[in-house]
């Protein structure tokens, strides 16, 4: 299902412009360690790497994403790594304030804890939606910048 | 792995467990850091006990206890950040979201269930049927003794409920979910199936509401000791403290991937209850969880006790009514 505006709640898209052109194989080799994690499977098909995760461990740097794709676009002049990642955790966190507002409405007594948690998850969602794309972009950048400089485009 | 013999049991044959206090790493750093992380736990306990013994009635109330609890938790977050026990247990945004989901459910739905069909409802019924004259001797004891007895009675009940969860399959189904956690931090005590959270909350703590100061003091003792069970902080826990009280070291053994180790250290506050019944193992573990450390999603944690119960029941029925045919000789 294509939901280009709504899915920004839980999808992270972005790109890194590679100043030194590299083949997809080379770029994915540099990112390989991010996908060598428990519960992660990935497949490289031409210029695209597709991955999926099941029950990733806490310290997996891509733990909030359950599937996604990375690909290298090369127009002959420059190369760019683009990515599109799906995060059920962001989606869960977005809906949790509504869940706790629902609980407050349902229980009709001692509602303050439910309101407090609705507020906490609202703040957590905003923090996570900014922090996690920044962290994953940083991880990609560091991996790719190992022996080259990488210009970046902010994720959306 | 050879494991280490503790009593009649071999601990650490399936997953690494450090047994014995002398083998546990110490806090690294200068003398100030050493001092803080050696005496923090006793200092907080003494401060809280002193406060609840001396505070005037105008501030010695439940709302103050809630405020102290929130401030204490915020302080412990800072300690986890500054001096983690294991980097592999460090808090991430995803872990915080999932942990707080369970904390939120505990403070709302589970609390509501406890009030209407759990401890609070049962305690209310008992209190109405109770002859209070027979209980006057309890009120005449020193306040600190009252508080200790309240927390001890509550923890004694929790010990047997917890041990029962590890030894009786229907209860284990609800509790097993909590054992899928792969790291400890101060919110992990709330992570589990809501049915278990309801069951583990059953007790007679609320029975002592008629002794508000003693009940608040007992709650403070429980908080100043029990909170450390799931904390990710490296302490040089003092000898007397670790002999009497449950610690994150003890509880990490309980959460170890090693089966024998997980069948130890059941108490929530007073580890000497485990010492009394021969279930205490002094030590620590880093690799936690079940099935080799598989992390369970929230969805699976919500359904696991029921799907497992269905699978087991179905299997038992099939064995009962469709026994495997034995070929004729």
Keywords:
heterodimer; A: 156 residues; alpha+beta; six-stranded antiparallel β-sheet; 42% helix; elongated; B: 329 residues; mainly alpha; two-stranded antiparallel ribbon; two-stranded antiparallel sheet; 4 strands; globular
Helical content of chain A (DSSP H or I, runs of 4+): 40-55%
* Overall residue-averaged pLDDT value of chain A: 88
User: Termini distance of chain B?
Assistant: 43 Å
Helix content of chain B: 55-70%
Q: Summarize the biggest pleated sheet of chain A.
A: 6 strands, antiparallel
Order of helices and strands of chain B: EEEHHHHHHHHHHHHHEH
Could you name the ranges of chain A where pLDDT drops below 50 across 5 or more consecutive residues?
A: 148-152
Helix and strand run of chain A: EHEEEEHHE
Number of domains of chain B: 1
Counted beta strands of chain B: 4
Integer average pLDDT of chain B:
89
């Amino acid at each position: 299902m294509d939901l280009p505006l709504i899915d920004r709640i839980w999808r992270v898209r972005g790109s890194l412009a590679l100043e030194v052109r590299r083949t997809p194989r080379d770029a994915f080799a540099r990112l390989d360690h991010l996908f060598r994690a428990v519960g992660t499977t990935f497949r490289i098909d031409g210029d695209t790497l597709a991955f999926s995760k099941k029950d990733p461990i806490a310290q997996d740097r891509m733990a909030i994403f359950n599937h996604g794709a990375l690909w290298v676009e090369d127009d002959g002049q420059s190369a760019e790594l683009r990515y599109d990642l799906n995060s059920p955790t962001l989606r869960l966190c977005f809906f949790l304030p509504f869940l706790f507002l629902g609980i407050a409405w349902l229980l009709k007594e001692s509602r303050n804890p439910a309101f407090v948690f609705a507020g906490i998850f609202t703040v957590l969602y905003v923090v996570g939606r900014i922090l996690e794309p920044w962290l994953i972009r940083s991880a990609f950048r560091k991996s790719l910048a190992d022996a080259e400089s990488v210009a970046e485009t902010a994720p959306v | 792995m050879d494991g280490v013999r503790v009593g009649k049991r071999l601990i650490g044959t399936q997953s690494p467990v450090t047994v014995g206090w002398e083998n546990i790493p110490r806090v690294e750093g200068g003398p100030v850091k050493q001092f803080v992380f050696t005496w923090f736990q006793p200092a907080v306990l003494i401060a809280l006990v002193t406060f609840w013994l001396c505070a005037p009635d105008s501030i010695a109330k439940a709302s103050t206890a809630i405020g102290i609890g929130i401030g204490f938790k915020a302080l412990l977050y800072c300690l986890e950040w500054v001096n983690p026990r294991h980097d592999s247990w460090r808090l991430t945004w995803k872990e915080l979201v999932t942990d707080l989901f369970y904390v939120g459910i505990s403070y709302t739905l589970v609390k509501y269930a406890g009030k209407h069909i759990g401890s609070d409802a049962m305690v209310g019924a008992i209190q109405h049927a109770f002859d209070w004259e027979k209980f006057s001797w309890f009120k005449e004891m020193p306040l600190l003794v009252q508080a200790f007895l309240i927390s001890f009675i509550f923890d004694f009940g929790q010990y047997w409920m917890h041990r029962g969860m590890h030894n009786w399959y229907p209860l284990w189904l609800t509790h097993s979910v909590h054992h899928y956690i792969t790291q400890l931090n101060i919110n992990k005590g709330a992570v589990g199936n809501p049915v278990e959270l309801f069951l583990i909350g059953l007790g007679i703590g609320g029975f002592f509401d008629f002794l508000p100061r003693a009940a608040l003091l007992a709650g403070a003792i429980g908080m100043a000791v029990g909170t450390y069970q799931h904390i990710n902080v490296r302490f040089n826990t003092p000898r007397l403290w670790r002999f009497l009280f449950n610690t994150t070291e003890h509880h990490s053994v309980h959460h170890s991937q090693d089966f024998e180790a997980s069948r130890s250290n059941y108490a929530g506050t007073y580890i000497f209850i485990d010492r009394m019944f021969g279930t205490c193992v002094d030590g620590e573990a880093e690799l936690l969880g079940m099935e080799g450390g598989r992390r369970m999603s929230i969805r699976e944690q919500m359904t696991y006790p029921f799907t497992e119960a269905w699978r087991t029941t179905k299997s038992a029925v099939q064995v009962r009514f469709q026994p495997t045919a034995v070929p004729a000789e």
